[in-house]
Design a protein that fits this description.
One of its GO terms (molecular function) is hydrolase activity. The protein has helices spanning 21-35, 50-59, 64-78, 87-96, 102-113, 158-166, 191-194, 198-208, 239-267, 286-291, 299-319, 321-327, and strands at residues 8-14, 44-48, 126-132, 137-142, 175-179, 182-189, 218-224, 274-279. The protein has 329 residues and is an alpha/beta fold. Strands 1, 2, 3, 4, 5, 6, 7 and 8 form an eight-stranded mixed sheet that branches.
Length: 329
Amino acid sequence: MEAPKPKIFNILTIDGGGIRGLYAAKALEQIERQYGPLINSFNLICGTSTGGLIALGLSLGLSAQQLANFYSKRGDKIFPRKHWLTRGYGFARQAFFNGYSSKKLRREVIAIFGEELTMSDCKVPTCIFSYNISKGEPIVFKSPHQHADYVRDGNLPIVDVAMATASAPTFFRNHHIDHDHLPDTLCTDGGVWCNNPSLAGLLEARTHFVGNGKPFDSIRVLSISTAPKPSGKQRKGGGLLRWKGDMMGAAIQGQSFFANRFLNNLNDNPESGVSYRRIAPKNLSIEQQKLLEMDLASPKALNQLARLGTDCGQHFVTQQAAWLSSVFQ
């Protein structure tokens, strides 16, 4: 008698990265063009910051193309292009206050999701990462899980979850939530601890879905980068005005590097039960590197991000056809 095929749990994770979410959305758009809606084949979708916005959109039934169009058309409303005369003031504003108005972010979040939806409206199990400043600890917002006894966040408004994950501390004010189990709670961007949520997604799967006595036997993870901003230049003598954002960026990139390294290590071990792939740009030109600034939403930068995401997505679809076919079978 032939042994039953192992049931594989598919996870999609999307990094944080501000306007660079356009890169991630365009890469995912290429996969959807080839294989159809992502929510039909992934058992869990995880996202942080801008990746959290994309994850929520996908889980609610929006296409990657719709989300990419949002970044292309509305990204400059959240992350406006700075005029050279105001850049000095911008450094000071970010050093001592927050860079941009949270009202603009909220307005654009409502434009995507409306104000009525809650986490219970997600069509696939979803994890969104933030940080609870009030308690000094990470927080994971979860949709009710079909195979797990988890309903805590079911009535939490999508707008609150989106604002909580995307309120980058050097860019926006912390988001205030006052809900049943989160009374008078301040949240900030999940990127402060989990900018690359692939490892956290793996933990969620292992805890609730995969393993002995659970519905699934092994795991596949597709991780989407947001074209991380190069940070090779040293800020010699820059002081607080120059270093505030760079220190945050260093912490974010360090976490992302570790998560990617850990998942690659599992991928290389046949006994781990984990198959891992990541879409990330390689060999960027000097011009591309200069444009990959977290809050730069000029037409030139947006076009570059869109092209880069499209190219990387198409390359991945070609090079990883067999792996993707197993996900979407």
